[in-house]
Amino acid sequence: MKHPLEKFIYCPCCGSPQFIVNNTSSKRCETCGFVYYFNPRAAVVAVIRDERGRLLVARRAHEPAKGTLDLPGGFTECYETAEESLSREVLEETGINIPSAHYLFSQPNIYPYSGIDIHTMDLFFEIIVDSNVVFEGKDDVSELMWIAPEDICLDDFGLLSIRKGVARLLGREL
Question: Assign residue 146 a region: left if phi > 0, alpha if psi is -120 to 50, beta otherwise?
């Protein structure tokens, strides 16, 4: 697999083609000295459960992994905390205003987008809601559904980090 930095040939500051590998996660311009780090992008994942222990699962409306199962979530934005990002993403994708969330764990991921493998750090948060909550698949989601843990098939999840995260939540091996 090629490193995403290979796509960056010219210095974004001065335009010099002397933009060389500095270390495993950065490039340095030999002309102006600018150093660009390609670090993982933060993303949030909502593990939404009801009082019966069911998991709210989304069907992806777009590539990558269009049509496969996913959990609500997405990328954090500049000047946004992970918790603010989680609330925004859940509202955008489900219409649910979340009461509170509890951080669970993180999982590295590679998210293919526009011909580049975007390295992410997915932050999983648990949210408990009433099973009567009204939700609607919107934005990047074509469908939302409750699934009991025993009915979850890990292979139905299209993104590896989500599959690994759900496996961890369920105490299953991949």
Answer: beta
